[in-house]
Amino acid sequence: RENIPTFHVMAQFTTPLVKNVLILDSEGERILCKYYETDERKTLEAQHAYEKAIHQKTSKSSARSEADIIIFEHGISVFIHVGDVAFFVTGSVHENEMVLEAILNGLVDSLARIFKDNVEKRMLIENMDILYLTIDEIIDHG
């Protein structure tokens, strides 16, 4: 038997894990994407293919005022479209989608407050440092 501290074993079963956070523009192009260690997409090519596929799957969705949930490529993704930007938070199929939705809503609400409800592609690109900091404060290493 492995010598694993008890607190670490418990954390595996109680701490929600995020696989990735994606912020894509209306064309499915990357504004900011963070892939964490739990995500199986390790190469840039695999990540871009995933981003294109999830954009294609969700671009016609009406998730404009509330988040929507899909099961996609062995994960649960919650997403919302805000203006010309789509936000995604993905966890494993075993994650609680309500927790993932709370993370997504926390991110979008935080950015709306920071940017005075002006959450759009241009604003996010011009303030990339704030965008990274906000995500890092909400999600700690996935």
TrEMBL record:
It is a peripheral membrane protein. This is Coatomer subunit zeta. GO terms for biological process: intra-Golgi vesicle-mediated transport; intracellular protein transport; retrograde vesicle-mediated transport, Golgi to endoplasmic reticulum. One of its GO terms (cellular component) is COPI vesicle coat. Coiled coil: none annotated. The coatomer is a cytosolic protein complex that binds to dilysine motifs and reversibly associates with Golgi non-clathrin-coated vesicles, which further mediate biosynthetic protein transport from the ER, via the Golgi up to the trans Golgi network. Coatomer complex is required for budding from Golgi membranes, and is essential for the retrograde Golgi-to-ER transport of dilysine-tagged proteins. The zeta subunit may be involved in regulating the coat assembly and, hence, the rate of biosynthetic protein transport due to its association-dissociation properties with the coatomer complex. Residues 18-142 form the AP complex mu/sigma subunit domain. Keywords: Cytoplasm, Cytoplasmic vesicle, ER-Golgi transport, Golgi apparatus, Membrane, Protein transport, Transport. It comes from Palpitomonas bilix. Oligomeric complex that consists of at least the alpha, beta, beta', gamma, delta, epsilon and zeta subunits. It is found in: Cytoplasm; Golgi apparatus membrane; Cytoplasmic vesicle, COPI-coated vesicle membrane. Belongs to the adaptor complexes small subunit family. It comes from the Eukaryota.
